[in-house]
Amino acid sequence: MTRTPKTTGEHDQKVGTYFDKAAVTFDTFYDRKRTKLMQWVDRKYRSDIFERFRIAFETLRPMEGKSLLDVGCGSGPYCVEAVRRGARRVVGLDMAPGMLDLACRRAEATGAADRCEFVLGTFPKDAPQETFDYAVVMGVLDYIADPAAFLGPLAQRVRGKAALSFPSQHGFRTPLRKLRYWLKRCPVYFYGSGQVQSLMEDAGFADVQVVKIPGAGQDYVAIGRGTAK
Ligand SMILES: C[S@@+](CC[C@H](N)C(=O)[O-])C[C@H]1O[C@@H](n2cnc3c(N)ncnc32)[C@H](O)[C@@H]1O
Predict the structure, then answer these.
(1) 87: which of 24, 66, 170, 182 is 20 to 30 A away, CA to CA?
(2) What confidence tens digit (pLDDT) does each residue in 45-92 have?
(3) Ligand 1 nearest atom to the CA of residue 23, by list position
(4) Is the predicted pLDDT of residue 172 greater than 80, yes or no?
């Protein structure tokens, strides 16, 4: 079935502009380049970022000799980790040029560049027309206006498992986060657990499992098997 995404060019431009500006700051989460105080804040309030990284690589196994599509790859931490674990080919797609610059630099600095391809663009519109063993989509569904139009094409590109995060509705944190993003003119969306399960299944993913990361932001991580042959 072909769907017309509700997402407009203007919507994507807002998200891309926000992440282009935030790229350097976002990248520092992973490399502990922040002040001691900010590292404490990250451990306390952003532990989901590290926990979903751990879950993704615990799930997408074995990585040796496999291909991975990383949608919304940001500064490339998942791409280079996949190569470190033996992936033969990794495609990182992102709409923010500043993020992709950092991803290229990270891949070069870690010797992963020859197995990584970075594509500037928006999923699903600009995704390569190939299928992958695995996919990872972390911290991205937060910014997707029409998740069904995103997840259907994703399921069709994956032969094995995909690991995705979805931000949960949280009584205290959600209104604050909405306000922060509204001030930065970046759209942001939240999900309930039943909604995540049905979005994944309706998109065609099989063996869907949804877990909630305890503490901090309480993201859901959904794992499902894609429909590609
Ligand atoms: C919070 S960052 C997460 C980066 C990385 N996945 C990580 O976990 O470190 C979200 C990224 O998704 C990208 N993004 C959002 N919507 C996208 C879309 N439809 N297509 C491609 N990239 C997208 C943004 O540009 C941004 O770099």
Answers:
(1) 24
(2) 677 888 999 999 999 999 999 999 999 999 999 999 999 999 999 999
(3) 27
(4) no
Q: How far apart are CA 212 and CA 167, in angstroms?
A: 10
User: Based on the number of CB atoms within 10 Å of its own CB, is 109 exposed (0-12), middle (13-18) or buried (19 or more)?
Assistant: exposed
- Contact call for residues 98 and 129 (beta carbons, < 8 A): no
Task: Report the C-alpha gap between 26 and 184 in whole angstroms.
Answer: 15
> Best of 7, 8, 19 to mutate for ligand 1, by most ligand atoms within 8 A of CB?
19
Least confident of 23-32, 79-88, 126-135, 209-218: 23-32
Q: Taking the mean position of all CA atoms in its chain, how far away is CA 179?
A: 22
Q: pLDDT band for position 147 (50/70/90)? A: very high
Tens-place pLDDT, residues 92-114:
999 999 999 999 999 999 999 99
Write out the two tokens for 50: 């590290």
User: Residue 126's CB: how many other CB atoms inside 10 A?
Assistant: 12
The residues near 171 (Cβ < 8 Å, ≥ 6 apart) are none
Cβ of 99 below 6 Å from ligand 1: yes
Q: How far is the CA of 109 from the centre of ligand 1 (A)?
A: 21
**Cβ count near 4 (within 10 Å):** 7
Q: Give the separation between CA 93 and CA 85, rounded to whole angstroms.
A: 20
Q: Which domains does the chain have, with CATH numbers?
A: 9-29+38-225 (3.40.50.150)
